[in-house]
Amino acid sequence: MSRTNPPVTARRRLATAISVCAVTAMAVSTALAAAGPVLAHPGHGDRGEDFPAAPASRAATAPIKADPDETAALGKEHAEEHARTRMAIAGVGEYPQTTRTERLKSLTDSQATGNAAFDAAEFGRFRDYFQSPDFAAHIAMLPTGKVLLFSFERIETNPQKEPAPTDTIGKENAGRAFLWDPKLGTGPTAFKEVKPPVVNMPDGKNEPRPAPFFCAGHSYLPNGMLGVFGGNLGGNGGSGAKLSLVFDPWQEEWYLNQDMAVGRWYPSVVTGADGRQVIMSGQSELGWGTPTSIVERFPAQSVPVPVDKTAKPIGWPVERLKTEAPFKWDYPHLFSLRDGKIYGLGRASDQQWLFDTLSDTKSDLPPRPDGKKRNYGSAVPLPAGFRGPDSVLVLGGDRDDPNTYRLAGGKWATEKPRAFGRTQDDTLLLPNGNLLTVNGAFDIRDYGNGDKNPNADLKYRQVELRDENGDWKLGPAQRLPRGYHSNAVVLPDGRIMITGDELQQLANDPDITDSMNGSIEIYEPAYLHQGSRPSLGLIFNPSVGYDEKITVSTNTPNDVTRAVLLAPTTATHSVNTSQRHLELRIKSRSGNFLELQAPPSAAAAPPGHYMLFLLNEEGAPSAAGWVQLKPPTAGATRGKP
Q1: How far apart are CA 567 and CA 563, in angstroms?
Q2: Which CATH number characterizes residue 579's domain?
Q3: Which tens digits make up the pLDDT trace of 210-267?
Q4: Range of the domain at 240
Q5: Low complexity composition bias: which ranges (predicted)?
Q6: Going by C-beta distance under 8 Å and a sequence separation of 6 or more, which residues neighbour residue 347?
Q7: Global pTM?
Q8: CB within 8 Å of 594: residues ≥ 6 apart
Q9: Does residue 272 form part of some domain?
């Protein structure tokens, strides 16, 4: 998020100072005169004469809140007149509803026209598009089947400005969160607000507000809860908060824990083989340009790893490790691979490290072969059978470089390229082991036509698909271009939920005056359009230890050729440390029952909740059931190399 001034609070202070009619009239006259050339500016994408109507209409119909001091001095009617005037001044030059409406219509029409050429059985298709109450700068697929969306309370509705309170100090610097339940459909009643804990941030304002946890890092605990670390203290271009929170999907509430040792703005978090979360990087509480090298772990070793859903991490400590991670740039990619160690892949090509949290040591990995700093872009641990991933594909973050880079066995190799380079992209592992890239942009807040210009190069709307041979192909286009703060998750029914990017959501809002300022679209991969799918019935032992048997039922036993575990996604800023794809060995078949074998160790698959899919020969998955891999006993977290 870029540095901003808090225009809302500034306008309030200015408006309160206007207490005489002559000054008010002069302000209106001056504002409208200055607005003339702005309203006619072709960069706003509409005819100049159409622009004044929307702000004036909103000011006339919106609820009026008069200043109490003015009401006492001037009377209610006169004070309300002043309030309307201030609203008109604030509205001049903003992004009009007419443009938002026409933009969304244009994107809807072009999507339908362009996608008509794509066969759904080969490329998949986009189906649902609906409004959401949150921007979803952060997302998490929960083991309850619901999706957690969280971000910030906006300070702007104009997509040509920064809507997040990055530099705001005080109560307007606040977080918000919602749950979407796909079983309840796509309307407003399918969403439930889950307010963050109220905190009094150490910013000197003494203004308690919902925790400003946006631009934090997160990963899952073994009991299915989501640990969230860091956030926005406010000021100085983005100062790190010391916040440590947990979201409980079972009770649908947030828990506040002890502060971290250092503030973190844009940190990364990964769950290791021992079930504990490792936290690295982020700008400190001193503000932008002060990345921390401190490594921390949650929960501290003094607290058992939470396994049962009844365990409530409230007031738990975070502990500092001896090893340091001096990443120059925020949001590095972190992955726990099959050797049980954590691979830290920094955005700078020469900052690639291997961390051993058991011995609390760090060693060097070779530099990435592109030799450049990469922006926010995706990276994925590639499937490698039932023993867990042993390589990572880095494939986003450079608008000029379509190549993909694979780290395996301590060595880098250049893999097959995508059609073009893109930043801010999101790449997901699908149940069949293929990859799907959605979203993307030219740069942060730039879609190819300059900073904070919502008009985007249309190529960034196209998805891209990677098959089992590593070959890429472009597919259909999503409704909105989505770049910075875009997100996507695989749903348990095999569909893909795509959301995020507050600027594009604001620029295409069908009604900016309501509370549904976000949007969600659903992509159906090709495997949902290739005929019948296997069925998954009961999972008889959904909580299981490593290398143990998992018994399931199915009404289509003859169609099942594979069984896989797919880790749920939690992501932000193109960083997704939780993804994982494992094949499950089918040990025996008896009628409508299959006996599967769980992964061999916590190094193969860190403890936690996974989606279990049954697949047929064509790679079409069943709807998923949930399996919890329980943490092993102490000393048994490492699998055989």
Answers
A1: 13
A2: 2.60.40.10
A3: 999 999 999 999 999 999 999 999 999 999 999 999 999 999 999 999 999 999 999 9
A4: 165-331
A5: 52-65
A6: 327, 328, 329, 330, 331, 332, 373, 374, 375, 376, 397
A7: 0.86
A8: 551, 552, 553, 554, 557, 560, 563, 586, 588, 614
A9: yes
